[in-house]
Structure formats: structure tokens, C-alpha cells
Design a protein that fits this description.
Length: 199
């Protein structure tokens, strides 16, 4: 952000200095390789990532510092995964990695190489909601809904590990998911209802 601001400032300053005329002159002059590094350097710095997302094989080139959340939201447009704190503290960005809940803002996408990621979009089977999703609807497990995808994925992660968790297990498993609306009683009720429904 800082470097963007600096270059924007420089650009505006240069405009003020009458560089429009200079631009005409420069346009006839072939650019040297060292004058045009950014694009090529960026290309060279990309890394290939192969993984499965919501049952589909995905292969894409990303910057190594891209987080899993950024990759899902910005590259794959799976914006159901929310980013709130972006610091591994609130759980809003929870997705399943090989069936286990992880904070997608807090891990590099490249660390998901060869793995299977499920996001909130991938829980549904066609138009059919998973029991955990149905339970959140039925028991009103949300208010503003911003934390909800993360809450649902965390709850699904618990159910993947143990389809009949007790109340304490659910509370412990979901303790890393913060709800600013404090809808906790309904969230817990929803998760318990889904667990009770499990075969
Ligand atoms: S947005 Fe990832 S933990 Fe808060
Ligand atoms: S429902 Fe609003 S943050 Fe949880």
C-alpha cells in the first residue's frame, strides 16, 4: 500500500513537471530490459499450486506469499469464506483442509499443495444443504451472518472427526470461532442439533 502511494505521488509530481512532453520523446526510445522489471519479475516469482477445491482439481500460478484465504476469494472467487481479522484470531475464514478445520487467512496457499480444501460453497450437494447447514437455518444460528461460514465449517470439522460429539466437545471445537453478534447460544444449539441428527 505504501509503495503504491509513493509511486502514485511520484506519478502526480512528474505530471506537474511537464513529463507529458517527455513521454512523447520516450515513446520513441526502446526500453532497456532493466527499465521494465516489474511484470517479468512478478511472473518469475509465481509458483505453481495444485490442489483440490470443493471436489475439483485446481492448478494455478500464484505469488508465494498468497494466503489460502486470498487464493480462494481472489483467484477462485469463492467469497463465501470471510476474512475478518486476517490474523488467525477469529475463525471467520475457517475452511476444511483434508477434512480438518484451518484458518485460511493464517496459512499459505502453497502449504495446501496436493490437499483437499472444502469451503462453505462445497458443503452443499447440488441444491441440498448438509445437516449442519440445515441446523443453522432451523435453529437461527446467526445474526449478521459474517462469522457463519466459519462457524459452520468449524462445526463440520468436529462432526467429521466424531459424528456424535457431546456438548463439551462441540464447545471446545468451536472455541476458536468468534461471533461479534454473540449469537453463541443459537450457534451451539445448531451444532448440537446437527450432531444429534447424525447417524
Ligand atoms: S480472518 Fe482468519 S482467523 Fe480471523
Ligand atoms: S452472526 Fe454476526 S458475527 Fe456472528
Amino acid at each position: 500500500m505504501k509503495s503504491k502511494d509513493i509511486s502514485r505521488r511520484k506519478f502526480i509530481k512528474n505530471l506537474g513537471g511537464g513529463v507529458i512532453g517527455a513521454g512523447v520523446v520516450l515513446s520513441h526510445k526502446p526500453l532497456k530490459a532493466e527499465d521494465q522489471p516489474a511484470k517479468d519479475e512478478n511472473k518469475q516469482n509465481l509458483a505453481r499450486l495444485n490442489l483440490t477445491v470443493n471436489g475439483k482439481k485446481v492448478s494455478l500460478d500464484i505469488e508465494p506469499q498468497t494466503t489460502l484465504a486470498q487464493m480462494l476469494r481472489e483467484k477462485l472467487k469463492l467469497t463465501g469464506t470471510k476474512v475478518v481479522c486476517n490474523h488467525g484470531e477469529c475463525g471467520a475464514c475457517t475452511v476444511l483442509l483434508d477434512g480438518r478445520p484451518v484458518y485460511s487467512c493464517h496459512m499459505l496457499a502453497l502449504d495446501a499443495e496436493g490437499k483437499e480444501v472444502i469451503t462453505i460453497e462445497g458443503l452443499m450437494e447440488g441444491e441440498k444443504l448438509q445437516p449442519i447447514q440445515e441446523a443453522f437455518v432451523k435453529h437461527d444460528g446467526l445474526q449478521c451472518g459474517f462469522c457463519t461460514p466459519g462457524q459452520i465449517m468449524a462445526a463440520q470439522g468436529i462432526l467429521n472427526k466424531n459424528p456424535r460429539p457431546d456438548r463439551l466437545e462441540i464447545m471446545e471445537g468451536m472455541s476458536g470461532n468468534i461471533c461479534r453478534c454473540a449469537a453463541y447460544p443459537k450457534i451451539l444449539e445448531s451444532a448440537i442439533a446437527a450432531a444429534e441428527k447424525a447417524e
